[in-house]
Amino acid sequence: MLREFKAVKQEPGPGSRRWWDGDGLEFVVWYDGADNFTGFQLCYRGCALTWKTTGYWSHVRVGSGISQVDSRGYSSPILQANGAPTRPPFKLLTDFERSSKASVGDQIRDLVTGVLSIVAR
User: Fold this and answer.
1) Considering the entire predicted model, what is its pTM?
2) Helix (H, G, I), strand (E, B) or coil at 79
3) How many CA atoms lie within 13 A of 37 on its CB side?
């Protein structure tokens, strides 16, 4: 089951994000300054599906980050276009539906499953 993080750090400027994690999935939803939904990112098994209301979407691998490590000993994961299949597997749709039932609102869940039914194989 996805569990929502309640104290998510927000980036400076207008807009906000919500963040869930669980069952091998990580799910982030973005909103603009007027609380309108603007997109989401769904990460699973080393891949990330990103979708924006502008119609943009991508499906890429999540790399381990650059070889340099920051002062705390961490490297930042990066999205890598090489190596990921063009489309996410259709199983991601059922995995997301099952995991998000209790914690993600119906409107967001319906939108994400609609997108997944179009872009997944």
Assistant:
1) 0.83
2) strand
3) 16
What is the C-alpha radius of gyration for the chain, rounded to an integer number of angstroms? Answer: 15
**Residue 83: how many CB atoms within 10 A of its CB?**
10
Backbone angles phi, psi at 108, to 5 degrees: -65, -45
Structure tokens at 74: 């961490």
pLDDT of residue 73 exceeding 60, the answer is no
Tokens at residue 119, please?
């872009």
Mean pLDDT in residue range 62-87: 61
Nearest to residue 48, comparing CAs of 86, 19, 79?
79
CA nearest 44: which of 8, 88, 3, 5?
88
Sign, CA torsion 97/102/103/107: positive
- Token reading at 11: 């980036």
79: β partners? 62
* Closest among 31, 19, 9 to 103, alpha carbons compared: 19
